[in-house]
């Protein structure tokens, strides 16, 4: 498929991801799945404490979630069906670009395994974890394109839902360069 056709499956918007009516929203989580701040806290506040409980059960079963990996829980009171919790890198820990790519790719792959059609991402790692916002935009969009280009998938729609003007600006700018 041509990149321009793939870009039609990608949407850049400003907003609160907890309101997104997609099959799955992605949470920018930490390895302990302790959803104590940022978008993670917003997701638990809006969706219910059951999201934290289910996350705790996962940690009990499999231990910490390594950076670049993703797990899935139900979404309870959120309008979406599932929450995919992915662990992006903390800026400064090394190999951050590669790890962020992996975190996004594995989220898409999990959505694909669940046969989902739509998924929304926040700007993973670019808040509390300190990853530069412009590089985050490029890596997230490039990874979505790479995935949609190479995997025959149920995923028809990838939304990047950005909370603030600055982050939205970087995503919009990079997306426009590609079309
Ligand atoms: N909708 C969309 N984006 C949001 C929302 C929202 N409701 N709220 C914040 N953002 P962050 P990280 C944006 O810090 O850098 C947590 O404590 C925010 O403006 O949530 O990966 C976790 O438990 C920023 O652009 O995630 C981890 O410990 C983006 O989401 C740690 O923070 C990501 O910011 C993860 O840090």
UniProtKB/TrEMBL annotation:
Q: What PROSITE patterns has UniProt attached to this entry?
A: MACRO
Q: Which residues cross the membrane?
A: none
Q: Where does the secretion signal sit in this chain?
A: none
- The segment(s) forming the Macro domain are 1-179
Task: Report the InterPro entries cross-referenced here.
Answer: Macro_dom, Macro_dom-like
In its UniProt entry, what is this protein called?
Macro domain-containing protein
Q: Which organism is it from?
A: Anaerocellum danielii
